Amino acid sequence: MINKGKTASLLAASALSVTGMQALAQDAQTQSELDALRARVEALEAGKVGTSGGDLRIGNTTLDVYGYIKADFFYDFDFELGDTANTSEIGEPDNATSGTFGATVRQSRIGLRTSTPSAIGEIGGQLELDLFASNGTAELRLRHANITIGDHWLIGQTWTNFQPLDSYPTSVEFDGPVGIAFARVPQVRYTNSFGLQNTSFAVSIEENVGGSNSNDPIFTGSAEYNDGTFLARAAVLYGKAESGDVEVDQTGYTLSASVRPWEGGLFQVNYVDGEALGPYLIGAGDAIVGGEANDVDGFTVEFRQDIGEKWNVGVAYGEENYDLPTSTGDLAFTDKETVHFNVFYKATDDLTFSAEYFYGERNDVNSGRDFDASRIQLAAQLNF
Q: In this predicted structure, what is the pLDDT of residue 17?
C-alpha cells in the first residue's frame, strides 16, 4: 500500500523548496500559496484527501492499489501436475510419482486502478500483474491492462467476452474445472443495457488466443440477466483458426445460469459447445487435428454453501469432450474430467485460509486406457 505520510512529506519538501526560491519576488502571493499547500499537506497526512474511492489522488485522478499475497502448498499423489494442477500432465510417464510435495507463491498479484472524471464520462484504467511467467519462474506477467470510458466502452486487455465470469466456479488451485472458457485478450468492447432492469449486453472485437494461430480478429456477443439471486447468460464467438496451410471456422456458444436458492447457498452451471474452440478452454485441446476442425463440448456444475460467517464449502465438477485427439507427449486425449472439493475459512476481513481436494482424469486414445490423479492443496491469502 502507498504510504500517505511519506508521500505527503515528499510533496511538501519539494514544493516548499521551489516556492521558497520565488518568495523574494512575490512575498504576498507566495505566502498565500504556502498556506494553501500547508493545508493540503496536513489533509494528506490526516488521510482526508485522496482517500475516498482510492489510495491516492493526483489532480483529478484517483488511484487505488489492490491485490493479494497467496502462498500455496500441495501434494500430488499420482502425477506431478505443476503449480496449476494441469490436467494435460496426467498419465504422462515422465510425471509419474509416488508422492511429491510442492509450493508456490506465483499466484500473488498486484494491480492499480485509476479513475478520472471527464466531459465524456468517467475514464478508468486498470493495470494488473501476477508472477505466473513461463517455465515455472516467479516473474511478473501481464494480466489486465485496459481503459474504460463511461459505462459502455472498454479498450485493452481483460477477460474475453466469451467467458462466463459471473458464474465461474471457485477453486483453490489456479485454473479451476475443465469444461469452461478461460482467456484474457486485447479487445474493444461495448456494453449497454436492453432498457430492462438487471439486463445487459456486450459485443467485442478481440485478438485470437494463442493456440488458434490466426491473425484474424474474433467477434463475440453476450447477453445477461442478473438480479443478484438469479443469473442467466448466453455468449457467442466467431473467428478463424489455422494450422499450417489449413484454416477453419472457429465458432462456439456458452450458456450459463446460477441461482441462490436459500441464504448462503449457490448453485451454478455452464455449458460450452463449438468447433476449433479448444484453445479457449481449460482443457486446451487442439483447434485443428489432421486438417479438420476439432469439435468440443464441455460443462461445469458447482454447489456452494456458507456455514456461519466464517466458513464456505463447495464442490465443482467439470468435463470436456473432443471429437479428435490432442497429443500431450506420449499420450493423446479426447476426454477430461475434474472434481474440486474445497473449504474456505475467513480469519479476518482480509485473510483467508483454504483447503482443497482435486481429482482429475483423462483418457489416452493410443492405448485405450484412462489415467487419474489427485492432489491436496492448502493456501493462505492476504488481500489488500
A: 39
